[in-house]
Amino acid sequence: MPSLTPDDYIVALRMKPDLPYTLIRDRYTGLHTLYVAEAEDNQNIQFAYVVEQRKPREKTSVEEAWSEASNRFDARCSEGMKTVLEKLFRRFRHIDELSCEVKQLLETIENAKDPEQRINAIEHYCQQFSGNAAPEYGANLFHFLVTRRQGSCRHRAPVFVAFCRYFGIPCRQIINRDHAFAECSVDGGQTWKFVDLGGAPVEATEILSKFQPTKRVSGSGGESKRIKKLFKGADSAQQQALAEACGISLEELNTALETGGALPVTDDLSNSGIVRNLWDRKDVTGFATGVSMLESLETDTLSSDEKALVGNVRYGRYYNTRIYKPMSEAVQQILADGDEVQVTELLKPLHSKMIVQGGANPQQWLNSMVDMLSKSDLETPPVIRLADEALTLGWLDPLPTCDDRIENPEEHWQLLWALESIDELKAKATHCLKMWYRKFLSREKNSQVWQLAYENFQKKKNDTFFITHCHDGSSPLLENDIVDPSIQIVWTDEPEGVPNIERMLVHDPAFEQLNSGKMNRRPVIIVGGPDWNARAIKEKHETLFQRKVNTSPDLKQLLENTEVNSFFVSQVRKKLRHRCWQAIQQAFTHYLYDVTLSKGGRLMYCWGHASFRTSSELCSYGSHDPSSRKELYAMMTQINSSYVFEHSRKDACFLKQAQNASNALVLKPYELKKIAREFVNSVNLNSLCDALDNQSLWTDWE
Fold this sequence. Notes:
Distance between the termini: 58 Å
Strand content: 5-15%
Structural class: alpha+beta
């Protein structure tokens, strides 16, 4: 329930239809959780409630709650948010990281003539959130959301609310189980406008004005009975752990069992809360008790909070939300304590209950397994034995389909390579790596993501593809390595051996000869690009720049004229250097494309944990066959794969298998650097300089 603080209390509640319910309030966060035991699947329930802020233990009747006027904070944002927004509106026109489109939207918000126009502009700004990037550790989350516009409904709604309140427009955030949206008012809070910013479908419902007093109890009877039953079958250590997880003493728990009475009141007696508390102990006793409690639940009634325990759990609210992995963190500590035999045997029934039977997200389980093993010491026998069991049971296999928002392919990839280096795990880890490469880097995987980025690249004016050929540059190293050394069958009319009767009948050459495949090309797989900052390449770039200046009298005079505006001269020099880099890179692209695709060759480009300079896509994996020299140039200059992925020296065979090209030549930055060095040492700089003359360079500088 939204916008509640530790001092907020729900003092009245009305529900339609009128069903029995239990309302639980967390004393630390102010979070109220409503349980409706008799609700049916997909049943629509409407409810309204009255909230009052008061000091702890201060009670107010329903009638008083109705009569007292509430203090409104709808039209004021926090000082921290105000500071971020003030700085943004003061400087946004000069922030290079913001696109022209974003700047225009912010200007529309700032210059709105009335509240309705401003609300529409803010709504448009927030509806265009896309992607799922996360801020760097320690960064201001609100500033990240406002400027990067990443995330789903739960990120858009608070940004919309903050913008409205910054401009004095009353606004509030509404959150339910599936969606977050906003309501704003243009008449000082007399009427409210519903604003859906996208992210999930919602239906507006009319809330009536009848209320009934709330009932304050500790938890549902089913949960209390379950705890008692679990307590009776537990040993003394587990009983103590269970009592602590419930927030009561062992004596109080024993008394409740002996008398058959209700358990003492606590703020959160939910199954997920108790299990989380048990696992937070990070010992075998607490972990085993938590597993037993989850096993005792009815499979078809597992809640989303209970299913989330095997993955990420959100704790807190809004910008103070903490995300942690209770299962992973508990197992890590247990492994460090040397109790892997017990924890492995506990994980098996937990996986069966939560994933196989209960429908919990298998990607969350995979993420937790990767997390717990990656953060453990892989040189210790307990961790190796758990990793061996996880590989055997398929817990580390890539999933055929998954939720992109929670997938972490690079951490998974790095773990599998670490396991592959351990002798006793090598075979199983290698099998898992093959599946990983097939899933993320098979031919044309995620090519549509790149094609969208390529469309944006083609719209850029400062990246014109103006070089038309390779200007005599070449690389003997590439031309030697790309030759296919395989033996092939060639049919000829020269009589030798026994002819093929079927071919003779259709008048085709019918005598078989075995020839080497030197007339054919091997397929080529490119990952990344050459290091253009290598000394030999930079020297050629500088030579081309100086040659261009020396052969252009007007340009030379401009760059040497001290009376001309220094900023203008520096911009001319900067753009000419950039154009020289483009000329070398584009000539190299022509050569690479033509050589690899000649004589039956095939060219593939792969990327991993990459970002695209012309797209908001992050952490992308995929493969695409470039269809033109220009597209290859764009891929080599616009795709930024992770350094670790590009420079891995051991994965050539996996890339070949994923691309179904067993004899392919794999070119990574190390190989491309050597090829590019040979190319620039042979390229005709005079010809390149002439190509620069054919461009409207002055148009860019005017």
